[in-house]
Amino acid sequence: MKVAVIHGPNLRLLGKREPEVYGSDTLDDVNASLRSLATELGAELETFQSNHEGELLDFIEAAAQRVDGFLINPGAFTHTSVALRDALTGVDRPFVECHLSNTAGRERFRRHSYLAPVASGVVYGFGVQSYLLGLRGLLARLSG
Ligand code: CA2
After folding, report:
1. Active site includes 22?
2. Domain residue ranges of the chain, discontinuous segments joined by +
3. Is 7 a catalytic residue?
């Protein structure tokens, strides 16, 4: 089983700014934790981060040729991007959406996700654990 993990805009700042909201782990720490869980569960991972919507769309289209599913924290594009939703529905691979923070308890504009209605599942509010739980859920879905 092969999964692509996608980190959306600004997530490379993780652990460097706003630790009270997003925690103190860096993006490299998150990827390392995901890799270790993937190994434990017998899955392969590739990771990708971009601040650019078009690059995310291109990555999804290309990666769909070689992976079984996606785990994505779309960052702020969650709340704005019909294009990202269309890219994910267009490739016909299951995906799980995850967020570090509890977006339901933050500003009103963060409560809506364009992706959630077409995701296999969504995990939010558990910090880095949201990614790990999301990976477990995605792999269960892929092998179920
Ligand atoms: O909680 C999440 O994971 C979010 O996807 C993070 C996004 C935010 O726009 C979403 O509403 C919820 C922001 C990612 C920016 O990451 C930063 C990390 C550290 C410092 C500043 C930004």
Report:
1. yes
2. 2-143
3. no
